[in-house]
Amino acid sequence: MDNLIRCGWCGSDPDYIRYHDEEWGRPVYDDQKLFEFLILEGAQAGLSWITILRRREAYRNAFADFDVQKVAAFTPDDEERLMQDIGIIRNKLKIKSAAVNARLFITVQQEFGSFSNYIWGFMPQGKPLVNHFSSLSEVPARTEISDAISKDMKKRGFKFFGTTICYAHMQAMGMVNDHLTGCHCRTADA
């Protein structure tokens, strides 16, 4: 084990550490990556993130490498096929919502030029919010911005994207940087 200081939530699990060090909190503007996390965050609802993270490759295989056009074209037969896939969480509502959310994602892309333009448009000046929390207990589960995004997405018909999931999405996509002030990722980004 290295001696780097990290945010306490990642513990000592190698998958969590890699995710924490290489992805979490780093700004993402790529629509395919944003779609991937939309699917994964929706699958995570009610579960721990590590449960989904460990199944990420299975999700990649099951959901056409997160190709939004292909997922949007999923049929009830595809949904039934996915219900038999032991590599993913086999929740019918979550599986069905992936295709629904993919179609809505495309609609947003058409309206705003990209999903990135849409979601980053909620951020002040379209830039990441850098928080200065020193302990995990200070990190919120939701904010006014996550409330606004979630409300707008629900109005558009998106499923499994409440404000708490939305805030987790914002953290994952680097819309907010919630690395604790002592975390080595904070100093690497400074």
Report on the architecture of this protein:
The chain is an all-alpha fold and 190 residues long. 55% of the residues lie in helices and 2% in strands. It has 11 helices and 2 strands; from the N terminus they run H-H-H-H-H-H-H-H-E-H-H-E-H. The protein has helices at 14-22, 31-44, 49-53, 56-62, 68-72, 76-83, 92-112, 115-120, 144-156, 163-172, 184-189, and strands at residues 129-130, 176-177. A two-stranded parallel sheet has the order 1-2. Helix 2 (31-44) packs antiparallel against helix 7 and helix 9 (144-156) packs across helix 10 (163-172). The chain is globular.
Topology of this protein?
Blueprint: H1 14-22, H2 31-44, H3 49-53, H4 56-62, H5 68-72, H6 76-83, H7 92-112, H8 115-120, E1 129-130, H9 144-156, H10 163-172, E2 176-177, H11 184-189
Parallel strand pairs: 1-2
